[in-house]
């Protein structure tokens, strides 16, 4: 989220330090003027194209253009800042801004300089395009009123685990950052002006929304394609000769029936296989050392599923129960949890099994026309760390489709579970101690893969959850890493498709017998 008291002007300056003194001084003057000067009247319009949805890969694209009124012709566009902080799905605020990528078009690709959504903490929702980002880039002169294409947004909504009828909204309006300008704004310099001015643009429109559609049932498409081609061929023959088409159709029926039978058998045994259905490795997580355990010290965490996309399967990002705050500080040596997921027991309610509202979970959805067979689930437990570690224990309990919703109740109390694992350790200096002080890497314990092979033929949405809590009275931090779900996803025909194929095949055979 946008950090209070900051705007995109705060991060403009570092990209210009490689330029000559004159350019640097001019840039500083431009930035100061842009921050302090009142916004100009709206003379620039942000135009968003219609969304181009790609339901088979669960992405949509939106082009961004700028238009200018005639009094701005021959002026220079120098800076564009885009903020998607108001984007949402089903009315819920988008928090994983890295699901949206922006690809600038030439010449603005040289302006982008690696800036991307999901970037530095405090600016995750923003992308900055700077005409002085590199020696290759320069301001763009506006010659006429024709729209200027800046680039394309690509919103990957697959990790959100949405279903048919859900909505996804890309919103670029931004918000007022306290400087008199919004976080989506444009720096523009008229020919008569020495310095650029900051413009709050108008929008046409400020957002685009798509409704998630059902992915076409794969075998329905395959079947229609296989049947349509012979029928089209027969119709063309009929146009040449009615007698000829009857003979041709009679000769083609055996081969067509055989082809349909082969198609049916292929559909019944055509798995889309993958070893890894979901994986959460938390690469890029960067924890802030804070000995005072200040709340909210760790933001911008990577919680996304990084397994390769699999047809027919969607996986959410990692989610949390209400009593678990993944952004809480972890005290001293918090960076021991970098590239993993750490928790602070000073903040989270994990001291008592009957009260532990501390659950991480993810959901996966199997699309119509597919079925999933699970194999194993595994994860790493990272050793608890703190002042009182002698004889400490962390207990991880794994649930599959728990009886209550972890997003609401956190799986508190005695519930049916798949397996429970205890991670024991002794204190520093004792025999068998797993870690001492900052030597945290020795405290990693890989849980043996948990057998889920009884879960077969899955359709719809399902939940995998881990409830974790520490020994009563123990002041410690602990973590998780490398959550991996394995299995297979297979494409299967819907009953209506099987019935249609069977009925058509039977009808064709009957027709052939009558002719004979």
Structure, described:
By secondary structure, the protein is an alpha+beta fold. The protein has 3 domains: 8-211, Sandwich (Immunoglobulin-like); 218-270 and 494-515, no CATH class; 272-491, Sandwich (Jelly Rolls), CATH 2.60.120. It has 6 helices and 27 strands. The strands form 5 sheets. Strands 1, 2, 3, 7, 10 and 14 form a 6-stranded mixed β-sheet that branches. Strands 16, 19, 21, 24, 25 and 27 form a 6-stranded antiparallel β-sheet that branches. The protein starts with 20 loop residues before the first helix and ends with a helix. The model is unreliable at 1-42, 267-274 and 427-442 (pLDDT under 50). This is PEP-CTERM protein-sorting domain-containing protein. It comes from Stieleria varia. Residues 1-34 form the signal peptide.
Measured on Cα atoms, how large is the radius of gyration? 29 Å
Q: Label the overall shape.
A: flat
Proportion of strand residues: 25-35%
Name of the level-1 CATH class of the largest domain? Mainly Beta
Helix coverage percent of residues? 10-25%
Low-confidence stretches: 1-42, 267-274, 427-442
Number of β-strand runs:
27
Organism: Stieleria varia
Protein name: PEP-CTERM protein-sorting domain-containing protein
Keywords: Signal
Signal peptide: 1-34
Question: What is the structure about, briefly put?
Answer:
Keywords: Signal. With about 525 residues, the chain is α+β, with helices and mostly antiparallel strands.
Keywords:
516 residues; alpha+beta; Immunoglobulin-like; Jelly Rolls; 3 domains; six-stranded mixed sheet; six-stranded antiparallel sheet; 6 helices; 27 strands; 31% strand; signal; PEP-CTERM protein-sorting domain-containing protein
């Amino acid at each position: 989220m946008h950090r209070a008291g900051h705007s995109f002007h705060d991060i403009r300056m570092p990209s210009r330090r490689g330029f000559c003194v004159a350019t640097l001084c001019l840039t500083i003057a431009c930035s100061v003027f842009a921050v302090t000067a009142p916004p100009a009247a709206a003379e620039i319009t942000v135009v968003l194209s219609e969304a181009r949805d790609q339901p088979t890969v669960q992405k949509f694209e939106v082009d961004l253009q700028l238009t200018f009124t005639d009094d701005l012709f021959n002026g220079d566009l120098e800076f564009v800042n885009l903020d998607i902080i108001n984007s949402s799905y089903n009315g819920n605020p988008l928090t994983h801004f890295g699901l949206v990528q922006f690809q600038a078009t030439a010449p603005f690709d040289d302006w982008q300089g690696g800036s991307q959504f999901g970037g530095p903490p405090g600016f995750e929702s923003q992308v900055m395009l700077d005409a002085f980002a590199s020696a290759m880039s320069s301001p763009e002169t506006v010659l006429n009123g024709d729209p200027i294409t800046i680039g394309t947004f690509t919103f990957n909504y697959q990790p959100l685990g949405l279903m048919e009828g859900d909505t996804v909204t890309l919103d670029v309006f931004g918000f007022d950052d306290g400087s008199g300008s919004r976080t989506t704004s444009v720096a523009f310099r008229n020919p008569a002006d020495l310095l650029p001015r900051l413009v709050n643009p108008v929008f046409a429109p400020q957002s685009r929304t798509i409704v998630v559609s059902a992915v076409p049932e794969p075998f329905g498409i395959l079947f229609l394609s296989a049947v349509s081609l012979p029928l089209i061929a027969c119709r063309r023959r009929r146009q040449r000769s009615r007698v000829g088409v009857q003979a041709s159709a009679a000769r083609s029926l055996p081969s067509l029936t055989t082809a349909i039978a082969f198609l049916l058998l292929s559909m019944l045994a055509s798995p889309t296989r993958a070893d890894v259905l979901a994986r959460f490795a938390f690469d890029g997580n960067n924890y802030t050392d804070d000995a005072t355990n200040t709340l909210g010290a760790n933001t911008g965490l990577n919680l996304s599923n990084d397994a390769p996309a699999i047809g027919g399967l969607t996986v959410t990002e990692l989610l949390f129960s209400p009593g678990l705050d993944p952004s809480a500080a972890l005290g001293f040596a918090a960076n021991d949890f970098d590239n993993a997921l750490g928790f602070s027991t000073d903040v989270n309610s994990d001291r008592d099994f009957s009260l532990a509202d501390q659950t991480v979970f993810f959901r996966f959805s199997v699309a119509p026309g597919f079925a999933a067979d699970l194999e194993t689930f595994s994860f790493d437990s990272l050793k608890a760390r703190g002042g009182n570690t002698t004889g400490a224990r962390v207990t991880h309990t794994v649930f599959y489709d728990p009886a209550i919703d972890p997003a609401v109740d956190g799986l508190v109390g005695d519930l049916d579970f798949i397996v429970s694992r205890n991670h024991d350790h002794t204190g520093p200096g004792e025999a068998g101690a797993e870690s001492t002080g900052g030597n945290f890497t020795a405290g990693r314990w890989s849980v043996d893969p948990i057998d889920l092979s009884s879960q077969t033929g899955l359709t719809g949405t399902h939940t995998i959850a881990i409830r974790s809590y520490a020994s009563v009275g123990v002041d410690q931090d602990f973590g998780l890493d490398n959550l991996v779900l394995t299995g297979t996803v297979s494409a299967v025909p819907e009953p209506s498709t099987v019935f249609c194929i069977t009925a058509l095949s039977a009808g064709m055979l009957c027709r052939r017998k009558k002719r004979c």
